[in-house]
Structures are given as C-alpha cells and as structure tokens.
Amino acid sequence: MTRIESTFAQLAKEEKKAFVAYIMAGDPDVDTSLELMRGLPEAGVDVIELGLPFTDPMADGPTIQAAGQRALEGGMTLDRTLQMVRDFREGDDSTPIVLMGYYNPIYSRGVDRFLEQAKAAGIDGLIIVDLPPEEDDELCIPAQKAGLNFIRLATPTTDDKRLPRVLQNTSGFVYYVSITGITGSAAAEAGDVAPEVARIKAATDLPVIVGFGIRTRDSAQAIAGVADGCVVGSAIVGDLASGKPVEEVLGFVRALAEGAHAA
Amino acid sequence: MDDLVNSFMTGPDEQGRFGIYGGRFVSETLMPLILELQEQYERAKTDQSFWDEMDYLWKHYVGRPSPLYHAERLSERLGGAKIYMKRDELNHTGAHKINNVLGQIILARRMGKTRIIAETGAGQHGVATATVCAKFGLKCVVYMGAHDVERQQPNVFRMKLLGAEVVPVTSGRGTLKDAMNDALRDWVTNVRDTFYCIGTVAGPHPYPAMVRDFQSIIGKETREQMEEAEGRLPDTIIAAIGGGSNAMGLFYPFLDDKEVSIIGVEAGGKGVNDKMEHCASLTGGRPGVLHGNRTYLLQDDDGQILEGFSISAGLDYPGIGPEHSWLHDTGRAQYVSITDAEALEAFQLCCETEGIIPALEPSHALAHVMKIAPQLPADHIICMNMCGRGDKDIYTVAKHLGADMTGTEGREMD
Predict the structure, then answer these.
(1) Domain containing A137 — which CATH number?
(2) Strand order from edge to edge, sheet including A229-232
(3) Which UniProt keywords apply (chain A) (predicted)?
(4) Which one of A120, B57, B91, B383 is CB 3.0 to 4.6 Å from B84, fit for a cystine?
C-alpha cells in the first residue's frame, strides 16, 4: 500500500473528506517552498501535490504559470525538486506526496531513471497532465510497476464511453477537474459537480477528489461535500505570490482544510 | 506488399506516430475533442464533396494551381543547376498557409463549430485564418506573441481589418510557442463551440497528418507541372522549415521517389551554437514532448523548452513537425541550417535577379540553393518552394540593411 492508499483508507475509516493542497516546488525559492511544504500537514493537508515547474504549462492558468516561471528563474530543476522531497521526508514519513507536472522534464531524464529517483526520494504518486490514457505505455504503466500511483484527471468532457478507459490504469485516487478550462479559472458549483462525481463513483472504487476553481473555505466545504475531498492550488500559490509570509499562507490553508474537513 | 512496407507515405500509425514521433500528448479535457476531430477528418477525407469544395475554393479563391517558374537569371547567376520555384507566394494572402486553413475551416463548418481560434508567429497563418473566417462569417480569435505583434504590425492590422480579434500573448516570453500555449488554453476552456486551426504540421494527432494532407497540394501540383515542363521529376526539392508545413506539403508526394533528394532548411539564426541563437530543432535539438507531440525540440538539460532565435518570425519555433523528425532519423530527407545573414543575402539576390521579393522564410531555402547550385551540373533540376512573399518583411530587412524607413511606415503597406 502506498502512502496515498493508506491515507485514503484511514480517512474513509474516520468518514472524513480529504484536503489536498498544491504548491509549486521552488516558488519563489527552495527555502520558502520547503518551509511552506513542511507546514502543510500540520495545517490539515492530507495529501500534498508538489508542482514540478515547466516552461510551457499548457493546462495551467496565469497563477501557476507565473509560479513555475519564478521557480525556474530561481534555478529550480528536477534534481532540486527531488532533493526538496528528500528534505521534507526527513521530518515527515507519512504525508503522501504527488508530483504534478508535464512530461518533458521526466522524458528528458529518462523514464526508468526518473522513477527510481522519485521513488527513492519519497514521492508516492504522479499526475502528468499531458499523458492521457492513449499514452499509457510512456509512463503510467512503468510507474505502477515501480510502485508509484498514477493519478488521472477526469474532466467534464470525459463521457461515459471514454470513462472506463480513463479509469483503467488509474490508481490512488481520481482527480475530477470540475470545469472545462485551466487552473485558477471560474469557481465550480457543487450542484454541477455532484452528478459528475456520482457518475465516476459508479464506475470505480477509487476516491474521487475534485479540483479547479476552488478558492475559499466555503467552496472547499461545498465541493468536498459532494466528493471524497477537494484540491486547492492556484488560490494558495496566489496567496504566497502576494507576498504574505509563509505563516499567513498556512493560516489560509488551515481555513481551507477546515472547510473540507467540516464537509 | 513489399513496396507498401517500404513506403514512406503510410504514416502516421493508429497512435498517430511516425516512428517514435507524434502521438497525442494532451490533457484529458482535449482528448475527446481530438478523437472527434480525427473521426470527422477521416470521414471528410474519403468524401468527394469535401474535396470538391476544396478544389473549387483552391481554384477560385486562392488562385491555385500556383505556377512552377523557371528562375532563369538566378540559375545563370549561380552557374550550375537549373532552378525552379514553386510560386506559392502568389496565393491569396501571400503564402502557403491558406491551403491548410481552407481545409480546416471547411471541416470545422461540417463539425458545426462557430468559433475559430489560431496561433500565429509572423502573422501569415493568422491572416489566412482571419481571411477564411471572414469569407464564411465565422468568429475568429488569433493568439500572437506580444513580441511578434510588435514586429509584424502590418499583419496585425490586416487581421483586424478582416474582423479577427488579435490577442497579444504576454505569458511566458510572448512568442509563438506561448501563443500556441494560450490557444490550447482557450480551446480547453471553450471546448463545445470552438475549433483550433493549427497552422503547421505539429500538435497532437491528427493535426500533423491533416495539415500535411492539405498542404500536399503543393507537391502534387509540382509533380504534374515538372512532368509537363521537363518530362521528368526534379533531382532535388528544397523548402524552409519552422514547424515545417510548406516543406511537408512539397515533400510528401515525393517521399517514395527515391531518386529525388529532399532537403529541409532550418533557421540557423546567428549560427547553430551553444547559446541557442537559432531555431534549428533537428540540427541543434533533441527529442522531447511539447504541444501534443514528440519531436525534436530546443531544450536545456533539464527538459525545459528554450526560445529559438531567427530574423524570421515564421521560423521562430523551438519544435518541428514530428514527420520531419522521422524523415530526419530515417535519412529520407536531409536537414541543414542557414543563418540570418545568408538568408538576407538570398533575399536580395532573388529581388535583383528575378524581380520577386521573397519572404524571409523561403529566403532560407533559397540561400541553401545558392550554396549547392554552383556545384551541380546544368541538367540537375532543383525545385524550391517559394512559400511566401516578402512584403511583410521589408521593414525587418531595411533595418538589417541599414536603410532608414522612418516616416514611411504605413504608406508602404500593400
């Protein structure tokens, strides 16, 4: 069982919703993002999504793109991202870490070498935005063999015909993208999301976590209420980018987590 | 059967691959759209009424077939091979781009899409898209890097005149690749009514094959016209490559003619060097994944994409169509690079000897012709693709040649 699977098993036992937080590795610098990452579990984060910066994040909105650019300008690399995970693991061996990003930095490293290094560093799962099921042989299948979860996005355009294919090689959890659009866009409505989550849950036993468009404690609560949990990314990344100290950002994260956990 | 197996014209496979290149590296939101597009394109491809409509518009709206022209004075001046130009710069809107745009927009209409988006670098694809959208009364949004908006003002104004909305892209570094990112972001957001009209033989499957098929009219006509003029096929065909659509269009119908040598010319900028002051993906890059396909890319050791550099905004892209990557690896086509300075020299020679002002993109192809033609015998036939006219480039060229055109801006626009 990976850390992701045991965390969701535990949450299910406690009948608690999951709160997943996304931050960008190396934004605005390694020290700050590591400090933020270290504070997330205590602020109530159940699963950490760690963004791997990429020059061309075509599914992300301006907030995440700017964060990736700041990280890259600050010298962030795949090696430093893995080092950041190792540093985090020194003090926390239980919080699941999902690396989220795009395929090219991984392909450039070499899939086998990357998987070995990621696993050794303490990464539990991957969300690679530009690898749909049609490209499963690239990384999804090798990752599962290496003992990492490969978490897939399901979207409003994933119809019933396609859903089984999307779920086929998915593990850990299913990330339901609540809107057609990019990260940080318009808010999702719980009323619209509920039937979609039900549709996916009818086809899989995996937990369904909803992301995109959640920015406040109330919406975290509303969305988590109709799913197994929710993800917040752009709102947290934007809060940090506004110049707030890490402590204050963690306060915002705590409020979001409370919202999700109150659902 | 053996012939089929050995053919270079059977790609892509069912996964949209040319060898290891190509594929469908897109987010899940776009995946169903791409599958639908593929299905609709396959249907249209075998539907005679689709091609009848294309043929009619190619003839009466674009002005095809474009002439095949024997560049006599240029051949004489270079003193070697016999040089022909495929005159796609005479198309409506001044470049080869419209060949493909017509196909995609007719397809979009068949699919019931009402809003067309496009990315553009030099502005030629944007102008072609805006043009065809105006003709059919479709809403058109063109994404263009803020840097390119600045250096291609005449084309920006043309697009606006044609009723398109031009969105300057400031995300990333504000160049063609960022314009493509933003177009993809738009598409992800407006999936139901929007058709993404990609301007080159790149992107997720089926775009590379579809754009190639539409551009192949260039090579098909060239074969017929060459047979008519010379009674045989050319010995060498040459075209410039950014993403590589004009080149793929010329090359494709010749891929199985083993006696025809095929040369693609990349933009060498200031020279293919470690500082990456060029756009030569094949000469100076390595395979990676960007914008939906695996292909040769300009990238650093960590897989981060680098900005290309070229005097020509139309070649300023860090990738190349996946079929070119495959033709490069298999050795069926040869790829070389030409610097800004060499392209400028070819630009001037073409003006002087032939009375044709070429775009900076085909000037790269012409510069390579200048290099090889003098060493070849008089019965060696070269055909280069004159894929665009140079009116859009005169300000850039003037600047590089030190001519002062202050105060004339606007009056020189055609």
Answers:
(1) 3.20.20.70
(2) A149-150, A125-128, A97-101, A47-51, A18-24, A229-232, A208-211, A174-177, A152-154
(3) Amino-acid biosynthesis, Aromatic amino acid biosynthesis, Lyase, Tryptophan biosynthesis
(4) B383
Residue by residue, what is the 3-state secondary structure of B191-223? Answer: CCCEEECCCCCCCCCCHHHHHHHHHCHHHHHHH
**E strands along B206-326, which residues?**
236-241, 261-269, 286-290, 292-297
Residues B82 and B135 in one domain: no
A46 is catalytic: no
A229 domain-assigned: yes
Count of structural domains within chain B: 2
Substitution target from A104, A111, A153, A163 for chain B, most B beta carbons within 10 A: A104
Instruction: Looking at the structure, tell me whether residues B240 and B173 fall in a common domain.
Output: no
Domain identity same for B287 and B144: no
Do B377 and B391 belong together in one domain?
A: yes
User: Considering only CB atoms, which chain B residues are within 8 Å of A78?
Assistant: 302-303
Residues B192 and B326 in one domain: no
For B168, the token pair is 């300057």
Domain of B118? 18-59+97-206
Instruction: Let me know if A218 is a catalytic residue.
Output: no
pTM: 0.95
Examine the domain organization and report whether B178 and B37 are in the same domain.
yes
Whether residues B294 and B393 share a domain: the answer is: yes
ipTM: 0.96
pLDDT in tens, chain B (414 residues): 445 558 999 999 999 999 999 999 999 999 999 999 999 999 999 999 999 999 999 999 999 999 999 999 999 999 999 999 999 999 999 999 999 999 999 999 999 999 999 999 889 999 999 999 999 999 999 999 998 898 788 899 999 999 999 999 998 788 889 999 999 999 999 988 999 999 999 999 999 999 999 999 999 999 999 999 999 999 999 999 999 999 999 999 999 999 999 999 999 998 877 777 888 899 889 999 999 999 999 999 999 999 888 888 778 889 999 999 999 999 999 999 999 999 999 999 999 999 999 999 999 999 999 999 999 999 999 999 999 999 888 988 999 998 877 655 444 433
